[in-house]
Design a protein that fits this description.
By secondary structure, this protein is an alpha/beta fold. The protein is built from 17 helices and 16 strands. The strands form 4 sheets. Strands 11-8-7-4-3-2-1-12-13 form a 9-stranded mixed β-sheet, with helices on both faces. Strand 5 and strand 6 form a beta hairpin.
Length: 625
């Protein structure tokens, strides 16, 4: 095998559900084993889960044959065992849930085989004992075989104890899935009664480490729902955790034919090391480490990515200095090490090779020393290039540089501007912002000058002759109006008490009328809904027995809805009568003498207050002229 280049977690194509050569069911490969192996090697998929039904013999065999035929290949393989569970959450008689065990490729083959041999099927032998997987001989045997999930769980615990060198994957939706009612938009319409055995589906969901599915199921299992351009949290059940959905080929043939996939036709992008522990990371970061897009996520232009650097280190080899290569990730890179282990030296050497203006040689004693790999023939290789290239630019922020920069305003502003300038769209916004500031400042200065001129003109104004006489005349008119209005305000204590009682009664009647109107609106909404009775879970597959229960429940539901509608109609009639009664009582209060006279008195009293206010204003104005 070629020496693997370690860049840390990278986006790679994974197909964790590819059926093995001579798979136990629906084998459509129709080729020799060498053609099968060559198809895998020629694909651009990095990791395969070699799969078979109930058994592991074929998977281990084909993985060994591949490694013998392609010893230098960097392909990685996991053994995937597919089971048909006895649990069924759909309405289909053959809709049993498909479950997968994907094993760590570092555990012993014998351990996995011991586990398989310990399992028992739900079918029995003529003597009444449960069948073993080794009893399955023909394709028909495999097609009818089912197994209890608890049997798998118990034997996993016996075989591996508290260790977990395996992951459990279930089908997300559709035939064999735990959510057969998931629609094209990825949502599970429980309220419409589209899902049967909901509690069982939730319990199976809790046991899965990840799901096999497609993009329509992703949002549902990530507990989110898209609203416009944003996502909102939408838990699929109480305390549900986010889980990744993986797309895989489920290929039983070499080449694609219609809707049936071939090798390499379906895959998921997974960001991790190509190890079992790397795969396990998707459980903890399902949203950021899995993508079902066709193209590579977070793709960058090759001229923006440093692929690796090379430099020579001193050694005791007679051939001279040894060449060291350091490979970088196209995303974030973190260099870890103790003091004086060369972390800053590496980044300094890159900056020096690319002629960065911030770099200062350690030979310049007047500045902060930046040590490099001296005389190391340091070379920078960019992604896609076979030759080094030192003509491209990088942004370089050396050790302690930000501390120095914080004390130097011009240098700091220059760095910020140069960084923002790389984003043309945002930089244009900043330029326009600064231009608007200049224009606004100019306009503000002009308006201040105009305000000063107006203030000066106002100071020079003199009250015209005749203002005093006009104000006196206005005061006389206001006094006459006050006298007339005072005569109208004759609101005795007895009249006030009667008005208050009438007003209180009006408020109570109005509130009752409002509540009755809300009741009628609510009734209109309730009448449009039907009562749905929840069927208890049946523990048998007897169709006649289940039909008897279902038919009786349907009859109960019809009778309940009929009585419900009759009661709603009776309540609606009663509420309409109340509404008419309240409206009639409100009208009586509005035309009663106590209420009408009180309203007139209040209106006259308010007009008197306004006249007194105007009198005060005009009197003060008279004193200034």
């Amino acid at each position: 095998m070629r020496k693997a280049i370690n860049r840390g977690s990278e986006w790679r194509k994974w197909d964790l559900h590819l059926h093995t050569f001579n798979t136990n069911m629906n084998n459509q490969f129709g080729c020799d084993v060498n053609t099968y192996l060559q198809k895998i090697e020629n694909s651009d998929i990095s990791v395969f889960g070699i799969t078979d039904y109930f058994t592991v013999d074929n998977q281990f065999k084909i993985i060994k044959e591949f490694k013998n035929k392609y010893p230098n290949s960097n392909k990685v393989f996991f053994v995937n065992v597919e089971f048909r569970l006895n649990e069924n959450v759909s309405k289909e008689p053959a809709g049993h849930v498909n479950a997968h065990l994907i094993f760590d490729n570092n555990i012993k083959e014998s351990q996995v085989k011991d586990l398989i041999s310990s399992l028992r099927l739900t079918q029995t032998n003529p003597n009444g004992t449960l069948k073993k997987i080794s009893d399955l001989k023909s394709e028909r045997d495999y097609q009818s075989a089912t197994i209890d999930l608890k049997n798998i769980q118990d034997n996993l615990k016996l075989q591996f104890g508290s260790d977990k060198p395996y992951l459990i994957a279930l089908a997300a939706g559709g035939h064999g899935g735990i959510r057969p009612s998931i629609q094209d938009d990825g949502h599970d319409y429980r309220s419409k009664g589209a899902r049967r055995n909901g509690p069982l589906s939730d319990e199976l969901d809790k046991l899965a480490d990840f799901l096999f599915g497609d993009v329509q199921s992703t949002d549902y299992y990530l507990n989110r729902q898209k609203k416009g351009d944003t996502y909102q949290k939408s838990p699929r059940y109480n305390c549900a955790i986010d889980k990744p959905v993986i797309k895989a080929s489920d290929a039983h043939r070499l080449e694609k034919c219609g809707e049936t996939n071939g090798i390499g036709d379906e895959y998921s992008w997974i960001k991790s090391d190509i190890t079992f522990e790397g795969l396990r990371q998707i459980i903890f970061e399902p949203e950021s480490r899995v993508s079902l897009s066709l193209e590579k996520p977070e793709a960058k232009s090759s001229y923006l990515v440093i692929d690796h650097v090379e430099f020579k280190q001193k050694s005791n080899f007679p051939t001279g200095p040894e060449t060291t290569s350091v490979y970088f990730n196209s995303n974030l890179n973190t260099i870890i090490g103790g003091r004086s282990n060369g972390k800053s030296t590496l980044t300094n050497s890159i900056a020096k090779s690319l002629g960065n203006e911030v770099f200062t040689s350690n030979e310049d004693t007047s500045t902060h020393n930046m040590h490099t790999f001296n005389d190391a023939d340091f070379k920078v290789y960019w992604e896609g290039d076979s030759e080094p290239n030192n003509d491209r630019q990088v942004e370089f922020i050396p050790q302690d540089y930000m501390i120095t920069l914080a004390e130097d305003d011009p240098a700091r502003n220059k760095l910020i501007r140069s960084t923002v300038k790389t984003d043309e769209c945002n930089y244009e916004k900043i330029i326009n912002y600064e231009k608007n500031i200049q224009e606004n400042n100019s306009e503000i200065r002009q308006l201040i000058e105009e305000l000063e001129t107006l203030n000066q003109q106002l100071t020079n104004l003199k009250s015209p002759e005749g203002d005093k006489a006009g104000i006196k005349k206005q005061l006389e008119s206001i006094n006459e109006s006050i006298k007339e209005q005072s005569d109208k305000v004759a609101f005795s204590a007895e009249s006030q008490k009667k008005y208050q009682l009438a007003d209180d009664n009006l408020k109570k009647l109005t509130d009752k009328k409002r509540l009755t109107e809300l009741n009628l609106q609510d009734l209109a909404s309730i009448k449009a809904q039907k009562i749905k009775l929840q069927s208890p879970l049946s523990g048998t597959n007897d169709s006649d027995y289940n039909k008897q229960l279902t038919d009786f429940l349907c009859t109960l539901e019809q009778e309940a809805n009929q009585k419900w509608q009759e009661k709603l109609l009776s309540i609606e009639t009663e509420q309409n009568n109340h509404l008419d009664s309240f409206q009639e009582a409100v009208n009586k209060v509005l035309v009663s003498p106590d209420y009408v006279n009180g309203q007139k008195s209040l209106k006259n009293n308010q007009e008197l207050k306004n006249l007194s206010k105007n009198l005060k204003f005009e009197s003060e104005k008279l004193g200034t002229v």
